[in-house]
Specification:
Growth Hormone, Chain: A; mainly alpha; globular; 435 residues
Length: 435
Amino acid sequence: MNFSVYRDLLAIVPVRRVLLVGMLARFPHAAAGVLLTLHVVLTLDKGYAAAGVVAALVTIGIAVGAPWRGRRVDNVGLRKALIPSVISEAVIWSVAPHVSYEWLLVLALIGGLFTLPVFSVVRQSLGVLAKGDKRRTAFTLDSIGTEVVFMGGPAVGAVLATSVSTAVGLTLVGICTAGAGLFLMWFNPPTRSESPEATEHDVEAATAAVVSSAPAHLGEPAAELTEAAGAAVEAEGQSGGLLARAAAGFSWLTVSVAVVFVVAAGAGLLLASSDVGIVALVESSGNPGQLGIVFAVWCFASLVGGLVYGAMKRRVSPMLLLLAMAVLTLPMSLATDTVSLALLSIPGGLLCAPVLSAASERVADLVPEERRGEAMGWYGSALTTGTAIGAPLAGMAIDVVGPWAGFAFAGTAAALMVLLTLGIRAVVNARRTLV
């Protein structure tokens, strides 16, 4: 391990600035999860399954919206792409706390659809600013910053919900997130090494140079080939060209990238289910104000694990990291109070940041830079899809069995996802070997 890599990376001003902006922009939504759960359970007097449905709709909206917003960043730039998010964050979360449960479901879906894409933007920018092994350290630092935010965000959310009101808390989330979006637009971190226009100009210039330097007798055949290629492209456009272009648009989606997306979905399921389980167990003990203690310990463990992983000189498979985290989450079901839950959250928490860092690094390595914004959007969609599945199912288990069932479901489901994916990949590789 080499911990000096952190000092070297933080000495780069743009990297340091992106990490700081990412922390500030994430803080409001770090409090939103607890606020939404307590708003449904305490203010609207619904169960944890109902709260899980709201969380699921938010994450479904994020999963649907993240890819096209990532593509918008690729195509029109960060500032224009963020305008819808800034407006919707301020409006929707100021209205949502004052409507019925049924309307809250609708607003939760729309709010998720236009959520500020902090995760994908920050990771995309770090992928541009950091190269090689520095990229692992940069993603780890971002995960560590996220853990610091989630050490304080849920605690602030719990205090606002229990001491003031969930309505005030959710309104502040919307206003602060919109403000963070405006700050991100002002800072405008780089998402590409160079503009598409510059790249196109360079290609045209290089082509012109080659043509101008070619022997004269090659001119006519080259012209004929160009004309023939144009005719072929036109013919393709008339017969199935749209399907071909659509397939080409996803040429970056290889089997290896798909496996990373499975890891992201499993991590989302595991974290969301554990999140609901923590809220349910602490609230059932009659001390919802102590939620911040458990989240602080859980996130601090992730911070420590992230520091160690970022200093490592070799990478570890995100699939194996997720499997270990799932197994280590199961003992949280044995907790009986706030203190025991906080202590039992440490082993699994140590692997949280490493899982997300390893998966993000893998996506950045596998996907070309010009499609990385869209790929990070799909990565975020996979993560939030897992969250959308995990939150309501864990809520149902908690309502039927008890708070401990949330952790049992989380660890078991995530572990089964990993084992099933590894089994499918082994069968595919075996068939390729036979062929």
